[in-house]
Amino acid sequence: MATTQNQKRQRAERTRAFLDQLIEHFPDCFTKDRENMRPLAIGIQQQVREAVGNHDDLKDTPAWLVRQALALYTRAPAYLDATIARKPRINLDGTQAGEITDEAVTYATERREEHKQRRAERRKQAKKPQKPRRPSAEERKQQKMEELARKFNT
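Above: the chain sequence. Below: its structure as tokens.
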């Protein structure tokens, strides 16, 4: 299990790279296009493992990597939006694999709201403190006049 930050980063990069390979090898199922993303079939992890075992360049892929890549894909906001929109589930070959249940829509809606809340919090924290407003020309002129008055009236 990845324990250090560097190990976690490397594992995340490896997962993203493997997901890119899945997108390349199974374009009917996986996509980067947010508009064409569709929910995956229940139990697709087993289909992916079997299909990966049949590809020469992917057959040594560990089970944890398949699990991580599917988790990364299914937690994406676009995937959750597709589930909320009740797009039909698909198999690895792109054929329809069933409909979205009410429970799945509820779950996706809750996760999507959590995403939105976390994003709003990050934006709030990332906002830089505003610079003090620069005085207008009239205000600067008034300040100079006051300074001169103090200087010469003492």
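The first strand starts at residue 89 and ends at 90.
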